[in-house]
Write a structure and sequence with these properties.
Layout: E1 6-7, E2 14-15, E3 19-21, H1 26-39, E4 43-46, E5 61-64, E6 71-75, E7 80-84, H2 89-98, E8 101-102, H3 114-119, E9 136-143, E10 148-152, H4 157-163, E11 171-179, E12 181-182, E13 185-194, H5 195-208, E14 211-216, E15 222-231, H6 239-263, H7 268-278, E16 282-287, H8 288-291, E17 300-308, H9 312-325, E18 334-339, E19 354-362, H10 368-380, E20 384-385, H11 395-401, H12 405-415, H13 424-430, H14 437-448
Parallel strand pairs: 3-5, 4-5
Antiparallel strand pairs: 1-2, 6-7, 7-11, 8-12, 9-10, 9-11, 13-15, 13-16, 14-15, 14-18, 17-19, 17-20, 18-19
Helix pairs in contact: 6-7, 9-10
The structure holds flavin-adenine dinucleotide.
Flavin-adenine dinucleotide binds next to strand 4, helix 3 and strand 11.
């Protein structure tokens, strides 16, 4: 019951939960939820703390499923697997691989928990592939009333569409059933081409490659494109070369020049141009779960918006104009990706094939002006923020962006009628309030007598 200090990966969010709990079974999760409900306390659930917003933070009770990891059941014929919700993606990839299975797509890191990743609509890139939540075919959840709910598209169609991206506000997800593919290899290729050329070809590249993304460095003309396609080739690992490019160049060296930019922000455009000219190029072949993820050792803050796929070029042109009008001190690249539209109520890709544009700023450097200016552009194109990344939107604006907003709030009320799963931040974001903090403090005192 000792108070601890908690911080997210980038250090942008800090909180002091009064209680941190690590249950090891569904029964223990039920017990925690019932205790919180009885005592009028608030409960948030944490994955790996890799969101940039206070979406997982708690000032009261925090629950982590780090001790609920691993495979529960594999159905080889149906190509599905049920896994404990706390399982980290890296471990999940290896466990599935041993069963001859793999996820169809992943984001660019693999340290998140599967429940944390799906709860914010975490995505990778690929026109034909939705975000990770679209891979979910079943969930076991301990709701805000402490009941265990087995939920799928067939058993509870509405609840399921709300639960697939639910921001930790409908219940504690304890098990996730995923739709999978037979394990497969990917050939990865990194090339450098002029940004103008890339913009001309981007729609076609996205169409013709299983996974395509590009990194555009502000103030620089060359950009990096990454192509990933299925292959039968032998695994080609160049351990030393990969270590040099992934760890020494993309992390150690980039970390050092980022420190230089923090101390001398005016150097940022030069550093951005230098980085663009030095991106590691080449090819490698490996099993998918080992290739999608990259190492991110240099800490930063990030904003990412989903926009309609066809707006990619127009948004980038406006971003370039804004960057040339106002010289922002930024040397981190802009990451541009794609996702297939879906029907998940709070998924940023709801109802539209999408592009995602992510902007970054080195930790410790001022990001506000840059992020706000770019956000105004994203919003002009109907942008929807990534739930785990920085944004300035409030409930009134979010309601306009999500056709199923009210339906989600109705399910929220059904599954957590006392609002115990809401922090102040989540209450504001969804425009609902949780139990009165006064009641919770009084009960806590009574409890301690
Ligand atoms: C370096 C870096 C790279 C990233 N790359 C990508 C990327 O490529 N693509 C992308 O889309 N995003 C990316 N992200 C964002 C990240 O994937 C999301 O923020 C993700 O939600 C973080 O997962 P987590 O396990 O850390 O969850 P947390 O950040 O801890 O929690 C996120 C949400 O999930 C909820 N939650 C966690 N566990 C449960 C549970 N058991 N039941 C119910 N709710 C739960 C929490 O309450 C919270 O609302 C990146 C972030 C970082 C820091």
């Amino acid at each position: 019951m000792k108070q601890v200090q908690w911080s997210n990966w980038s250090g942008s969010v800090r909180s002091n939960p009064r209680t941190v709990l690590y249950p090891t079974s569904i029964a223990e999760v039920e017990k925690v939820v019932r205790m919180c409900r009885q005592e009028g306390r608030r409960l948030r659930v944490i994955g790996s703390g890799h969101s940039f917003t206070p979406i997982a933070a708690s000032e009261d009770c925090l629950i982590s499923l780090d001790r609920m990891q691993g495979l529960v059941h594999v159905d080889a014929e149906a190509r599905t697997a049920t896994v404990w919700a706390g399982t980290k993606l890296k471990l999940l990839g290896e466990l599935l691989f041993r069963q001859g299975l793999a996820q169809e797509n992943l984001g660019d890191i693999d340290v998140q928990s599967i429940a944390g990743a799906i709860s914010t609509g975490t995505h990778g890139t690929g026109r034909a592939y939705g975000n990770i939540s679209t891979q979910v075919v079943g969930l076991t959840v301990v709701t805000g009333t402490g009941e265990v709910l087995e939920c799928s598209g067939e058993s509870h169609p509405d609840w399921f569409k709300a639960l697939q991206v639910s921001l930790g506000t409908l219940g504690i997800i304890v098990q996730v059933t995923l739709r999978l593919e037979p394990a497969y290899k990917i050939e990865y290729e990194s090339r450098r081409i002029p940004l103008g050329e890339c913009l001309k070809q981007q729609a076609q590249l996205a169409e013709e490659n299983r996974h395509f993304e590009f990194y555009w460095f502000p103030y620089a003309e060359p950009c990096q494109i990454k192509l990933m396609n299925k292959t039968d080739q032998e695994v080609k690992e160049h351990r030393i070369k990969d270590y040099i490019s992934d760890v020494l160049v993309e992390n150690t060296l980039f970390g050092l020049i980022s420190e230089l930019c923090r101390k001398v922000p005016k150097a940022s455009p030069y550093v951005s141009r230098l980085s663009a000219s030095q991106v590691p190029l080449g090819r490698k072949v490996n099993y998918s779960h080992r290739l999608f993820a990259t190492r991110r050792l240099v800490r930063f803050n990030e904003m990412e918006y989903n926009i309609p796929a066809e707006s990619m070029n127009a948004v980038i042109e406006e971003m370039r104009e804004e960057l040339s009008r106002n010289k922002y001190h930024v040397h981190f690249p802009v990451e541009c990706r794609y996702a297939k539209g879906d029907d998940i109520w709070l998924s940023p890709a709801y109802g539209r094939d999408s592009a995602y544009i992510a902007i970054h700023m080195y930790k410790g450097m001022q990001h506000e002006d840059y992020f706000s200016a770019m956000e105004r552009i994203f919003l002009r194109y109907g942008g929807r923020p990534h739930w785990g990344k920085m944004h300035h939107l409030e409930a009134a604006q979010l309601r306009e962006l999500y056709p199923m907003w009210e339906a989600f709030r109705t399910v929220r009320q059904e599954l957590d009628p006392d609002g115990i799963l809401l922090s102040d931040y989540m209450g504001r974001l969804l425009d609902v309030s949780g139990p009165s903090p006064v009641r919770s403090v009084i009960l806590d005192r009574i409890h301690n007598i």
